[in-house]
């Protein structure tokens, strides 16, 4: 497939109202964004939104046999926005999805009316320690047992807290492990080797990804949410991005890490609701 040709992404649509394009991270899928989409699209809300959540190329149900590059995600998303006839929309992006959200806002400044950036950065930096064989072994055991018996406290204490999950979450609660069983494992299994390769190739480039100098071009309001103990994309790099955006509110949550929307979902969703109302985006409904 030529690089310039868009891939037809599978999209999960929920609710009615003003559109929010929700972009997952790596590994990920549309289903892994349900913590946001179930809430924002609920008919019980005072202000219901229409959430549109694609499986990015090489993830979930948007599988391909053709190698691709990270830039191709933007080609796909631009085509998707046109196909859905979205003249104005909000973007909510988690991790890699947040980086893509920033890129789309730079490409479509007249169409993106707001950004909700979750555990992401325009110049991402990590502080993840080296991974050893024991980390991988315990993560595999914890994941299999959690899939067979979700949120089993013995498994959480014996393997979960000693696995790589200790860098993804700080609060090893049963609700977090329910999310891992229901959405985390399936998202990982549905992330193709081609998707892994595209990300590895991007990370291996000599020129470090840095969009900070361009953020002044983004004029829409933004909300940056970060976990204080995030080792994958540090809270400091998220804060740096927020400081470079024209109109960005920052929230950093103590005792949380990269998967903080699963750790403290109630607080996160409350902050998103408050921000949407504060900046007037609910008035567009």
Automatic annotation (TrEMBL):
Residues 18-260 form the AB hydrolase-1 domain. The keyword Nucleotide-binding does not apply. One of its GO terms (molecular function) is hydrolase activity. Pfam families: Abhydrolase_1. It comes from the Bacteria. Coiled coil: none annotated. InterPro entries: AB_hydrolase_1, AB_hydrolase_fold, AB_hydrolase_sf, Epox_hydrolase-like. Keywords: Hydrolase. Gene3D superfamilies: alpha/beta hydrolase. The keyword Membrane does not apply. PANTHER family: MONOACYLGLYCEROL LIPASE. This is Alpha/beta hydrolase.
């Amino acid at each position: 497939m030529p690089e310039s040709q868009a891939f037809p992404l599978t999209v999960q649509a929920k609710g009615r109202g003003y559109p929010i394009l929700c972009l997952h991270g790596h590994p990920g899928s549309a289903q892994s964004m349900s913590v946001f989409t179930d809430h924002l699209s609920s008919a019980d809300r005072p202000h219901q939104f229409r959430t549109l959540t694609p499986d990015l190329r090489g993830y979930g149900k948007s599988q391909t046999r053709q190698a691709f590059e990270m830039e191709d995600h933007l080609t796909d998303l631009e085509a998707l926005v046109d196909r859905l006839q979205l003249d104005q929309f909000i973007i909510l992006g988690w991790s890699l999805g947040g980086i893509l959200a920033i890129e789309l806002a730079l490409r479509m400044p007249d169409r993106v009316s707001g950004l909700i950036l979750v555990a992401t950065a325009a110049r991402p930096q990590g502080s993840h320690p080296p991974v050893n064989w024991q980390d991988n072994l315990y993560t595999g055991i914890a994941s299999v047992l959690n899939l067979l018996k979700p949120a089993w406290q013995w498994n959480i204490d014996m393997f979960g807290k000693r696995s790589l999950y200790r860098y993804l979450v700080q609060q090893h609660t049963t609700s977090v492990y329910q999310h891992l069983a229901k959405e985390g494992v399936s998202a990982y299994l549905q992330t193709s080797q081609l998707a892994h390769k595209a990300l590895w190739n991007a990370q291996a480039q000599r020129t470090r990804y840095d969009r900070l100098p361009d953020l002044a071009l983004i004029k829409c309001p933004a909300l940056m949410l970060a976990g204080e103990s995030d080792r994958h994309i540090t809270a400091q790099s998220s804060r740096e991005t927020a400081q470079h955006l024209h109109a960005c509110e920052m929230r950093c949550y103590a005792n949380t890490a990269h998967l903080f929307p699963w750790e403290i979902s109630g607080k996160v969703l409350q902050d998103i609701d408050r921000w949407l109302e504060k900046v007037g985006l609910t008035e567009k409904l």
